[in-house]
Amino acid sequence: MECVTAVPSPRPEPAGPSRTGRTSLAAALLSGALGAAVTLLATRQEWSEGTATVAGGAFPLTAQGSDVTGVPAALAVVGLAALVAVFAVRRAGRLAVSAVLALSGAGTVAAALLGASDSTALDEKAAQASGDASATVGALSHTAWPYVAAVGGLLLLVAGLLALRYGRLWPAMSGRYERGGAPRPRRAAAPADPDRPEELWKALDRGEDPTGA
């Protein structure tokens, strides 16, 4: 009669958290970098155009995103810096930096949408061109670039939300830790050589006989 012994085989550890961390990390890096690049590109493009009446004629005017508002570009730089800083901090610091990243994205979206219908920059240019401080721009129209900047801000916001949700699974840049997260063992100090001159002098200072057995 055969004896059958049920020996449980070791189960491999689930790779779910590790895979989720890698996937979310890649998505956050791509989303954040692309969002910052799109926002900075959009703010250098023409957002609005119109005309000013100068000497009885229509004088064309244009305004770039940076003329309308400098907030989206500034927040894009802040968001990009926060995306990099996420990997330099841990625990509460990582949560704080992730929140800054998300807020940078949300602020970029809000500023871009507000600038999509703003005419202040062109009004100022119209006043300068006509020499009349009360002059305003005419035939005002807007381009789609403010909405492109808003899309860039939305990508930054997504990166920040991913960092808030999955940042605890991401690695951190630190020279004191190996990839597995364990502290590096310290090297043991080499034993002192009693025959070296400095060691002989130290022994004499301590009142020892360095030539004794």
From TrEMBL:
It comes from the Bacteria. Residues 1-21, 178-213 are annotated as: Disordered. Residues 193-213 have a biased composition (Basic and acidic residues). Keywords: Membrane, Transmembrane, Transmembrane helix. Pfam families: Trp_oprn_chp. Residues 182-192 have a biased composition (Low complexity). The chain crosses the membrane at residues 25-43, 70-89, 96-116, 144-164. This is Membrane protein. It comes from Streptomyces griseorubens. The lineage of its organism: Bacteria, Bacillati, Actinomycetota, Actinomycetes, Kitasatosporales.
